[in-house]
Amino acid sequence: MRDSDIDLDLPMASLAEPRDTNAEPDNGDAISSGPVRSLAKGLAALDLLRSGKDVRTTDLAQHLGIDKGAATRILQTLLQAGYAERTSGRRYRSGLRLREAIPGPDPLVSIRPNAQPLLARLSSELGEAVYLGIMVDGQVLYIDKLVPPDESLRVERSIPTLAPLFNTAIGKVYVAALNIPIPASLPASTPKTITNPQIYAEEIEVVRRNGYSRDDEELNLGIRCVAAPLFGRQGQVSGVLCATVPSVRLPADQLDKYGIITKRIADSFVAP
Q: In the beta sheet, which residues pair with residue 145?
């Protein structure tokens, strides 16, 4: 098989960014199901309910790429917990607990409609897969994507997907913006993972200076990423725009070029 015939179409994983098919498996695969996967799908369901539109079971099933039975169970769980309410025609909307938990027009994931044009611009300009991510409970949650359909060698992952904070491009943006303490121990995912806390701290200072972050095969060999923040009306990081590229198309010395492009487009974000 030629490299150009490879499609990196990846299943959702709790502790893995899009994975090179030759990469060694990591321990995150062992916990990519169960509670972590359920959390990701539940958060995505909450996101859909917070959009303000009535949601059918089929809408949620299509949104998450699951069957109607699984979608029904998620909606029933949210209904019983007060995060969803029934409307006419077997539809659901956000419940009182969800509206009280995230009041006003600027919930975490309401940025998606405003960010989608930027995803399109970035993907068009770079010709690569792009993602929108937020931070949830100390992890990165990818909530939207745009993948060029005509690229035979591409990096693609399911939405939603959880990933670790400290060795992803999106995570580095949050670490830099929120001054998140760096752990004394940074586990290695690849030989290129930054595991020295002092060197990692220096990397975060570079992120602050540049306004964008880089992942140079630090979570998966064969994949490089750049990311830049989307700022809310109060100057907070509301989300992060990320480009994910096979290393065969993005040499390490071109990462900054891609980062500058990503930052330029992210800076045009208009918060909802």
A: 131
At 162, the amino acid letter reads L
pLDDT digits (tens, 9 = 90+) for 93-126: 877 666 655 444 434 446 888 999 999 999 999 9
Tell me, what CATH number does 66's domain have? Answer: 1.10.10.10
pTM: 0.65
Domain that holds residue 65: 35-101
How many domains does the chain contain in total? 2
Residue 27 in domain = no
Residues 80 and 126 in one domain: no
Convert 208-243 to b/e letters by CB count within 10 Å (16 or more is b).
eebbbbbbbbbbbbbbbbbbbbbbbeeeebbbbbbb
What does the pLDDT look like over 12-42, one tens digit per residue? 232 233 333 333 333 333 334 455 567 778 8
Which residues have CB under 8 Å from 5's CB, separation 6+?
Answer: 152, 153
Contact status, residue 206 vs residue 230, Cβ threshold 8 Å = no
